[in-house]
Amino acid sequence: MSGSELGGRFFDAAIGLLERVRDEEAEGIAAAGTLVADTVAAEGRLFAFGAGHSSLAAQEIVYRAGGLALMNLLGVPGAVGVDVMPATLGSALERVDGLAGAVLDSSPARAGDLLVIISLSGRNALPVEMAMNARAKGLKVIGVTSVAYASETKSRHVSGTYLKDHCDIILDSKIAVGDAELTLDTVPAPFAPASGIVTSALLQAVMATAAGALADRGIEPPLLRSGNVDGGHEWNARVFEEYADRIFYRQQ
């Protein structure tokens, strides 16, 4: 099979997953968007967390042109992405008990806020405890995960539970265990992951729903504009000033 044919197969697989998520998670997306809008309207703050490659999806909705300005990244040192050296350290940190609690306690997150937690497997201690601790502090939690992992893998948290067990709303990415969409007789391992594409699309659908829900209530959604269009910086400066007490990625 040629490389171009494999490329087409991957697009087909990714499109199929996106269509599944669009159709099967529509109710959850609507509920999650409403919860985000409720939090903004109640003057709460928004946070997103993901470890390793799941952090890329979290970063996709933080300080994003066309996105909600109030979404802040809840970063765990060493677990934000592959910039940590060695990269394998990030994977190890996901299994450390107690780390999530320490991060939350030192963050500005408080009761009435909302936390989006992204974890493909949802089985490691870090995302499980992040959800547990966040809800104990009075935050609402939206989890984005592949529910299949809960039936096909063993939890790595002492409770035996998964991220999906500790969220107010769960969005299922439908990604198969192993996160690889293609196989080939001449390649010894499955390849071509699609979780990043699907998870990012899920989150953007939630943010779009939230913006519409706020507008329906007569509330101007606190959106950012691209700095590469005329007037973008001026627009963003106004938003930053108006919501300065709920935006933490501009503070030192």
UniProtKB/TrEMBL annotation:
Q: Taking every annotated instance into account, which residue ranges of this chain make up the domain SIS?
A: 36-220
Pfam families under this entry?
Answer: SIS_2
Which InterPro entries did the record assign? Answer: RpiR-like_SIS, SIS_dom, SIS_dom_sf, SIS_GmhA/DiaA_subfam, UPF0309
Name the Gene3D superfamilies on file: Glucose-6-phosphate isomerase like protein, domain 1
Q: Which domain of life is it from?
A: Bacteria
Return the similarity comment.
Belongs to the UPF0309 family.
Please state what the protein is called: UPF0309 protein ACFPH6_46930
Species: Streptomyces xiangluensis
